[in-house]
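Late entry, evening session. Most of the bench is empty. Finally got around to the prediction I had been postponing all week. Sequence below, unchanged from the version circulated by S.P.
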Amino acid sequence: MKKVIVFRHGDQEDLGRGDSCWSPDACLVQEGKEMIEQVARFYADLLRDCTVFVCSPLIRAQQSLFTMMDEIGYPGLPQLFDQVDNSCENLKTRRPETWYVKPEEADSFPDVKSIWMRDPQSVHAEGAHFFEGICQIMKDTDKSALCVSHAGMIDAGMAYAKSMMLGISDAFVAMKDVKKGQGVVFCFEDARLVQINELRDHI
C-alpha cells in the first residue's frame, strides 16, 4: 500500500495582518516549531517510510517540513540546501516553486503545485486539483510521501476524495476543519484510493 501523508503547517507569526490573511513571509513561532516536533515524534513510525517530500513554497510550510525531517532523521537524504535554519531569508530565496524531492533523484520537480495553490473557480475545483496532485505524488513514490500544505487545500482535497470514494464527487461540502499540525493520509492500492485516515490524535 502506498501512502501520501499531508500535514498542515504549525503556528506562524502574525506580521500584523491577522491569522486569516495570506502572509507568505510569516515564519513559524517557537510554539509552532515545538508543535511540529511533537507531531513528528507521535507519527514517527508512519513517517519513517517516506521517500518523497513535497512542500508549499511558503516559509511556514517549508520550516514545518524541515522540522519534521530533522526530527525523524531520514538516512541518506541529500543536503539540498547549503544551510537550512529558521531564517526566512534562507528558505525564501532557494525554491520559488513547490519544493519536491526524491532522495535518489533530487532534481525531479513534477508539477504538483495543486496541493497548495488556491483555485479561484470553486472549492470543488480546488479539491479536484488537490487530489490530482496527490495522485501524481503517489505515482512517484515507492512507499510513502510526506507533504506540508495549508488548511483550505487540505480541507477541499479531503472532502473531494471522500465524496469520490462514495461515488458523489460532483457534490461535496468542504469543512474548515484541519487545524495546524493536523493532517490526513491518502492510502492507495494499485493506484486506487482505498482509505483516508485523519491524523488528529496528537493535538
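Two things to note before I forget:
The longest strand covers residues 192-199.
The helical segments are 30-42, 44-47, 59-72, 88-92, 123-140, 151-165.
Will write this up properly tomorrow.
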